[in-house]
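Budget justification aside, the reviewers requested a transparent look at the raw inputs and outputs of the sequence design task funded under Objective 1. We therefore reproduce one unedited record. The lines immediately below are the structure tokens for a 124-residue chain.
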């Protein structure tokens, strides 16, 4: 017997990633992360079949998210990443009048060591 659980759909041999359970009393189909153990009244589904799952008319599908699964980046995450890339690509100003061609420190910057900076507290 294979240690990997397979999709319960007929003629599908892909590995299961989600478990489907029907709650008949509430007319609800619950799709959640793959159960630890194979239960007799639950159905293991592969990624493709779990995404395409539909329920009968009048039934509700409840999709539970897997907290250990990686989340997709939100629009804010992508925007923050784009801003960081733009900032890193901006050319550094070498000589702006400081002696020795060094940059002047930020008013909040107290000391610098390599890429690390020591900042002064805003209220001091």
């Amino acid at each position: 017997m294979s240690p990997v659980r397979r999709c319960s759909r007929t003629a599908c041999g892909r590995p299961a990633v989600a478990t489907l359970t029907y709650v008949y009393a509430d007319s609800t189909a619950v799709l959640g992360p793959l159960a630890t153990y194979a239960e007799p009244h639950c159905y293991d589904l592969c990624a493709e079949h779990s995404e395409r799952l539909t329920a009968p008319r009048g039934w509700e599908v409840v999709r539970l998210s897997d907290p250990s699964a990686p989340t997709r980046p939100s629009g804010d995450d992508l925007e923050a990443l784009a801003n960081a890339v733009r900032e890193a690509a901006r050319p550094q100003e070498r000589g702006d009048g400081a002696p020795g061609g060094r940059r002047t420190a930020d008013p909040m910057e107290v000391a610098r060591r390599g890429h690390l900076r020591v900042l002064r507290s805003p209220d001091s």
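Helices lie at 47-51, 75-89. The chain has a mean pLDDT of 80. Computational costs for records of this kind are itemized in the attached budget.
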